[in-house]
Amino acid sequence: MENYSSQQGHGSEKKHCRIEGIRCNVENCYYHDEKTHCMAGEISVGPDCAHCSDETVCSTFKPKAEG
Fold it and tell me: Which residues contact 13 (CB under 8 A, 6 or more apart)?
């Protein structure tokens, strides 16, 4: 998938177009479009080794600024 990045990081600092095929329900993430889409320029998912989906995380997550 072209929008996937295996590098650790917080993705792009500005929002882009939604990433097709990626569904996100994390409403308190800066990159969440307030529906079900991720608006980061790329995402990073880890860790390097997982045995089930509960052991994975989106390391692109960035909290929304409160206010």
Answer: none
